[in-house]
Design brief:
This protein is α+β, with helices and mostly antiparallel strands. It has 2 domains: 2-98, no CATH class; 104-221, Aspartate Aminotransferase, domain 1. Helices cover 30% and strands 28% of the residues. The chain has 6 helices and 12 strands. The longest helix has 21 residues, at 75-95. The protein starts with a helix and ends with a helix. The relative contact order is 0.11. The model has no long low-confidence stretch (mean pLDDT 92).
């Protein structure tokens, strides 16, 4: 279940359209699965988007949990698990949106790119769902990358995971700004022509946008 809703947040209007009913701090949805043998209840927090589920065996009125046990196998439990996951996947597809990056600055940068260039983040790798890119419409060249990263991987003495951005830069300018505190060598990119910044307030939003515009222009040249 966690994987189905990973890096996503609910659209509460769509939850209501889907059939969820708001009850206090939770939105709740009830349906029957497996030919009416089970009642499936899905609860989503109005405050944090947390998802909880219950599966009730209607013959006994007792909770059923074998579908949550990875080691549990067999035709019956497999079929119940498949229907349970199908319902959750449908809710995820119809009522949730991508929400990988959490910082205010990351959201502001995403809106800046959307407004100025009309580009949306592209999530290109299923195995790396927290990595996304922007690319120019004319030549498909990347000009920005957003990802979640531990600060330690940038050489900082912290295991905090933060939103970071990779941008193109003129190789002649790179040595002038690289300081290992605000500006870092491009993570997983060519370290001569890309650099990385944390979106944690260490670099002001306006400064990030200036670098982003330069990266956009550099991508035109290849």
């Amino acid at each position: 279940m966690n994987k189905i809703f990973a890096y996503k947040s609910p659209n509460y209007n769509k939850l209501v359209s889907f059939g969820f009913i708001k009850d206090g701090e939770w939105y709740s949805y009830v349906t029957e699965i497996y030919n009416g043998q089970f009642e499936m209840r899905v609860h989503i927090s109005a405050a944090h988007g947390e998802v909880k589920t219950e599966l009730i065996d209607l013959a006994t009125g007792e909770p059923y949990t074998l579908h949550l046990v990875a080691e549990a196998s067999g035709t019956f439990v497999g079929a119940v698990r498949a229907e349970y996951e199908r319902v959750l996947q449908e809710i995820s597809d119809k009522c949730f949106k991508k929400d990988v990056f959490k910082s205010d600055i990351a959201h502001k940068v995403i809106e800046y790119v959307r407004g100025k260039y009309g580009d949306e983040l592209e999530y290109l790798w299923q195995t790396f769902p927290s990595n996304a890119v922007w690319r120019r419409k004319d030549n498909k060249k990347w000009y920005g990358i957003l990802l979640l990263l531990s600060k330690r991987k940038l050489g900082l003495d912290s295991d905090e995971v933060v939103d970071v951005i990779d941008l193109r830069i003129d190789p002649e300018v790179l040595p002038e700004i690289m300081d290992g505190e605000r500006y870092f060598a491009g993570y997983h990119m060519n370290k001569k022509s890309w650099f990385t910044m944390c979106l944690d307030g260490s670099v002001p939003f306006e400064e990030i946008c200036t670098w982003l515009d330069k990266s956009y222009d550099l991508a035109k040249k290849g």
